[in-house]
Amino acid sequence: MSVQHAMTRSTGFRLSALALAIAVSAPLYAQTQQPEVVDVIGQAAQLEQALDDQRRANTIKSVVHADAIGQLPDDNAAEALQRIPGLSVERDQGEGRFVRVRGLSSDLNSVTINGTLVPAPEDDRRAVAMDVLPSELVQSLSVVKTLTPDMDANSLGGTIEVESLSAFDHDGLFYSLSAEGSHDENTSENSPKLSAAFSNRFSIGDGVDNFGIAAALSWQEREFGSDNVETGGAWDFDDGNQLEEVEQRRYDITRERTGFGLNLDYRPDEHSEVWLRTLYSRYKDDEVRQGLVTEFADPQLSGELGDAEVSRELKAREETQEVKSFVFGGKRQLGEWGISAQAGYSKAGEDSPGGIGNAAFEGNDDFSNIGYNGTRKPRLRSGADLHDPNNFSLTELEWEKQKTTDTEKNIKLDLTRDFYLSSMPSQVAFGGKVSRREKDNDLDIWTYEDFGDLGFSDAQLNLSGFTRGTTDYGLGRFGPEISDSAVENLISGLDRDSFYNEEESRINDFTIEEDINAAYLMSTLDIDDLRIIAGIRYESTRLKARGTGLDNGEFTANNTNNKYDHWLPGLHAIYQLNDKTQIRTAWTNSVVRPTFGQLFPGFMMDDDEAEFGNPDLNPLESANFDLGIEHYMGRAGAVSAFLFYKDIDNFVYTADVAGTGDYVDFSEAITSVNGESAEVYGLELAYSQKFSWLPAPWNGLLLNANTTFTHSDADIEQFDPDLGAMRGRSISLPGQSDVTGNLTVGWENDSLSLRLSTNYKSDYLDEVGDVLDSRYDYQVDDQLFVDFSASYFLRDNLQVFFEAQNLTDESYYVYTGSRRYNAQYEEYGPSYKIGLTLTHF
C-alpha cells in the first residue's frame, strides 16, 4: 500500500462531498475509540509505518513502506511512488519508469540507494529509471521535498531515497518466497516471476543478536507489446491543417529483470553500528519494432486520397541496463558527540552489443490512392498493393552498437554535538562530502546502402524474402512482418569495416567528468513545542567535457571546462500545535546540473547549419518555500495540506540561436540554452484513514486520497528573422501537470485484502516544438489508470494474490496544435497477475 493516495480531475472527477465529510468527521470520532490491536501486515500496516516515518522526520517528506512480510504495494519502485502526493510517473510501454516530483521533470530530481547517489544508465539523462528496482529489494521509499543542509542539494522537486532490507527490520528469522504468472492482453503472452527474501540475526562475541544478514533476489521475464500510430507533429497548420506524414508501429518486447541485494549489519554495542549495503539490478530489453511509414506527395486532409512514398522499416535491438551500488559505513556515539562516515560506489550502464538500428524497405514505386481517416488516431487507407511484399525492396540498413557507463564515487563524514542552550535541547552538525562522477558514451554505427553495387540482385533485396507472416497490429491493417534474423543474415558475409559511419559514430562519443566538493554547517534548536533547523551548505562543481565535432567535414576535438560555486542557506521550522497536529515551514535552496544530453560536447556544422550541445550551460538554481499542516489520527490516519513555491533561475530549453552571437550568419543553429527565470507553485492535499471504529464488516475499510494542484511559468525566447529581433513567450515547464492525484479504496481483515486504486495526471507540455510558434509544441494528454489487487491467506504463512493493471485500457497520446491533431498514439491493454507467497516472520 502506498503512503498516501488520491485521485482528482479538473473536470468530471473530484473528491466527493461524502469523502470530504468523512475526512472532517472521522478523526473526531476516531479519537474517542479504544486502542485496537495493531497488525503488522497489509495495507493499514504499510500506511501506519509510512505515516510514522513521515511524522518524525525533520523534513517534509512522503514515504512508502513495506509491511512485515516484505511486500510493497506495487510491482516496482516507480509504480509504488506514483501513489505519493505530488508524484507522477513517465511510462515506457505502459510500465511506470521515471518519477516526477511536484510537476518537475525526473531529470531535476535525484535518487539515492542506502544513502549514495544512483547514476543513470542512459547516455543523455540524469533521471534514474525506478522500474529497474524490483519491489522485493526495497524496504522503504521516501521522497524528501525540503532538503536540509546535510543533504545533497541536487534536486528541485525532491530526493527519492531507497532503503533496502535490513536484518534489524525484523525481530528474528524472516523469509519470503513468491512465484507468480502474468498475462498480457495485447500479446496474449504469459510470463513468470520468482522472488525471495531472507534475514536473520546472529550473536557475535559477547553480544546478543548483534550481527544481521539480509538478502533479496528477484527474477522476472515479461513478454508484452504495444500498438502505435504517430505523425511526429507533421501537420501543416498554415495550409488547412493538412498531414504530411504518418507512421504505424508495432512493438514486441521481452523484458527480463534480475535484482539481488545483500546487506550486513553489525552493532557491537548500543553506541556503535557498522553496515555494508549492496544492490545489483539488471534490466534487459529485447525489442522488435515494425514500422510502416507513409509520406504523402502533397499534404492531405483526412478522407482525401493521393500519391505517397511508402517504406517498411525494422528496428531490432537488445539492450541491457545494470545498476550496481555498494555502501560501507558506520557511526559511533561518544558521549555528546556523534560521528558517522560512509563510502559509496555506484555504477550504472547501458549496453547494446549490436542490433538493427533501422532497416528500410522502400516501395519500388509511388503508391496511389493513399489516404487516412481521423486526425487523433489516423487510420491508413490504401489498396492491396500496399501490403504486397513484392512491392518493397531493401535500400538502407543501419547497424548500431552502444555502451554507456555512469560511475559515481563518494566519501561522506558527519559530526554532531548535543548540548543545551539556556536549558533548550540543541545540536550542531557539520561535515563534508567528496563526490566524483564520470559519464562515458561510445556509439558505433555502420551504414549499408547501394546494395546493388555490392552484388545483390533485385530478388535478394525484395521484401518477400525477409517476411515471416503478418504483423499483429491492433489499430488497422499493417501487412507483412519483417524477420530480423533474415536481415542480419544478408549482411553477415560483408566486411563491416567498409561500412563504418565515422561521422555519426565519433560525434556521439563523449566523456563528462563532474567533481563536487561539499561542506555544511547546521544547527537544531528545540524551544518548547518549536523545532528550528538552520544551516548553510557549500557546493563546488568542476566539470570537464570531452567530445568531437564535425566542422564542414573536418573532425575537431572539443574539450571544455566549466566551474561554479554555490552557497545554499536553509531554514526549517516545525511547531507542535498539540500531540496530533504540527505545522511545518521551510526555506531551502538547491542547485541542479543540466542533463548530459544538454551538456553534450559534440557538434555538427555544415555550411550555415549547426547542431550542438552546450557544456557551458549554467546549472539550475532554485529558492524553495514550503508551508503546511499535518494532523494524525486513529489507525493509519492523517490529513495534511502543503503550499509550495519555487523560484528557478537558469532553466534549460532547446532553441535555435541562428542570427545571434557567433551564429549571426547561420540559417539554423540548434542547441540548449539557459532561460532567465521560471516559477512553480502549488497545493498538496492528502487524507488517509482506516475506519476501524465502524461496525463489521465496514471496520476493514481504508481510504487513501491525495491531489496536487501545480502551476508553472517559464519565459523562452529566440531570434525572429522576420522581426530582426528576439521574440519570446511564456510556457509551462515540460513535464508539469496542473493536476495529479490518487484515490485508493481498500478493505481488509485477517485473511483477505482488497484494493482498488486510481491514478490521474492532467495533460502537460512534453517538448517545445518551435519557440516562435506554440502550435508545434508537443502536449501529452491526461491519463487515468485503474488497478485492482486482492490477496488471501490460505494458511497463516501462505498467501495467494491477484492483480489487474490498467483496467481502463488507458493509452498514451501526444498531440500538437490541439487535441485533434496526433503526434503519437500508443495503446497497451490491461495485464493480469496471479501468484503465491510463502512467508515466515
From TrEMBL:
It is a multi-pass membrane protein. The keyword Transmembrane applies. It comes from the Bacteria. Keywords: Cell outer membrane, Membrane, Receptor, Signal, TonB box, Transmembrane, Transmembrane beta strand, Transport. Pfam families: Plug, TonB_dep_Rec_b-barrel. GO terms for cellular component: cell outer membrane. Residues 361-807 form the TonB-dependent receptor-like beta-barrel domain. Belongs to the TonB-dependent receptor family. This is TonB-dependent receptor. It comes from Halopseudomonas litoralis.
